Model the fold of this input.
Amino acid sequence: MQASPAPGSGPATVLPRRFYRRDPRDVAPELLNKVLVRGPLSGRIVEVEAYAGAEDPGSHAYRGITRRNATMFGPPGHLYVYFTYGMHWCANAVCGEEGQGVAVLLRALAPLSGFGQMRAARQKARRDRDLCSGPGKLCQAFAVTKEDDGADLVAGDRDLVITDAGLAPPVPASVTTRVGLSAGADLPWRWYVPDEPNVSRR
Done:
């Protein structure tokens, strides 16, 4: 699959499987400024959270494999999609080795292309910076649903890939605790691009 062009210092290339086959706490900050692409839609990743499986009480995988979280325990480089609060889909890049149950939640994007399509999907968004400024919002903007659970981000089997367009992650990235958790709320495993207007919250 050929990735859509995006700003950067060179042509966009799809992230390889080996990029994901690592600890999610290493992958997460390196995903910042990478680009999520779906057909004509693209957005620069500006906020992420790591979830570390059996050692992380905030993770869906903490208590082991279930029907809901099975994709988390599959091969790295796939998309784990789940439903939350009875209204939102959330998308995660599966990391580590198969069987570990670790992933990185995509929390916010800075839209790059496909604005018209995103606005049609996110009619409540008053500004472009509101189109993808949260995990549920970005899934709505990119039409990510349960049907995309298990999508291969490397092969692009469902037209979804993450690319490197030549823009390096911020050094340093802003680091905080994760959002909306009770268990594991004290762990500093959320990263975002400093001074970025598209993040979900400061």
Summary: Residues 24-31 form the longest helix (8 residues). Helices lie at 17-20, 24-31, 115-121, 135-141. Residues 19 and 60 are 22 Å apart (CA to CA).
